[in-house]
Amino acid sequence: MAVIWLSDDRPVGFSTSDKIRYGEQANMHLHVTEPGRRQQGVGVECMRRTVDFYFEHLKLKRLFCEPNAFNVAPNRTLQKAGFKCLKTHMTVPGALNYHQVRPPLAG
Predict the structure, then answer these.
(1) What are the sequence ranges of the domains in the chain?
(2) Where are the alpha helices (DSSP H) in 28-86?
């Protein structure tokens, strides 16, 4: 599932979800694609609305996000949106990725 964030009818970012277990849990990813819109609270507001969207449409009990532990911006955005860090671990998030330290955050 994908959600595109618009501002003045222009995309400023997006979120995708995977590992979906309808009625149970899913993982989400987030990206603010407009550099000029970063550090202005756009990500936090979009995150909050997207989390609500995923919970409503996928009937979730849990939602996880695993940003790179060394990428400060998405970790702060998720914490401001109400996510809590559960643990930090090494993982390969996808077929095109390399081993990374990831703190799964739950909302």
Answers:
(1) 2-106
(2) 42-58, 72-80
Residue 33 CA to residue 99 CA, distance in Å, equals 24
What is the Cα–Cα distance from 74 to 70, expressed in whole angstroms?
A: 10
Tokens of 23: 């009625």
CB atoms within 10 A of CB 34: 14
When mean pLDDT is compared across 48-57, 59-68, 81-90, the lowest value belongs to: 81-90
d(CA 91, CA 63): 18
User: Which superfamily does CATH assign the domain made up of 2-106 to?
Assistant: Gcn5-related N-acetyltransferase (GNAT) (3.40.630.30)
**CA distance linking residue 13 with residue 59, whole number of Å:** 24
3-state secondary structure of 4: strand
Residues 50, 77 contacting (CB under 8 angstroms): no
The predicted-structure confidence for 5-55, as pLDDT tens digits, reads as follows 998 899 999 999 999 999 999 999 888 888 877 887 788 888 899 999 999
